[in-house]
Known about the structure:
The protein is an alpha+beta fold. It is 39% helix and 26% strand. It has 2 domains: 4-70, no CATH class; 77-205, Metalloproteases ("zincins"), catalytic domain (Zincin-like), CATH 3.30.2010.10. It has helices spanning 49-70, 98-123, 162-174, 183-192, 196-205, and strands at residues 4-11, 14-23, 29-33, 38-44, 76-77, 80-83, 86-89, 131-135, 142-145, 150-154. Helix 3 packs across helix 5.
Amino acid sequence: xxxxxxxxxxxxxxxxxxxxxxRPRRSLGLRYDGQKKIFTCNVPTRTSRKNIEAFLSKYGxxxxxxxxxxxxxxxxxxxxxxxxxxxxxxxxxxxWKERKQKDYLKxxxxxxxxxxxxxxxxxxxxxTPYQIKIRPMKSRWGVNNKTKKSxxxxxxxxxxxxxxxxSVVVHELAHDFVMNHSQDFYSIVYHYxxxxxxxxxxxRKGKYA
Length: 209
């Protein structure tokens, strides 16, 4: 009895791999991995190849489009790196050691943040002399430690546009006045960044610009 097969299909001139799984089920199902560019098609055991191909032809391209709209592009790919929302080529970047890559990215982001935090601190009348730090955080975009007078930002911010990064700067500086995320806190954030919701949504969705 057939269990799984790997096919090749052509959608609008582009070739894709399809993992076809035969299962004891009633309907055909389709998934698409935007990173690996692979379809997975789960089908009833006795489904003919002709019917599976017709199903893939009917639904494959639209599914691919929807998934890719939700899948952010790779921040680093070879010598190309998203810097401040734009895909830039850094000659020989891929040949650098990992430590050199991180040091370069950290220095680039730190240079921008030191100036940007200073500007926003003046605008928001923040008196605390914060030290700026960069760390490879994945679960948080920024941390305000008022006790230690430090603002720590995620290295991943470097890939986003300056406008999006600024929304994180305003967020962390607003904690100088209110440490929690209450209504009073967000009234400060929205006062200085009226479109904060839209900018922050791009962070959550991985949209660099």
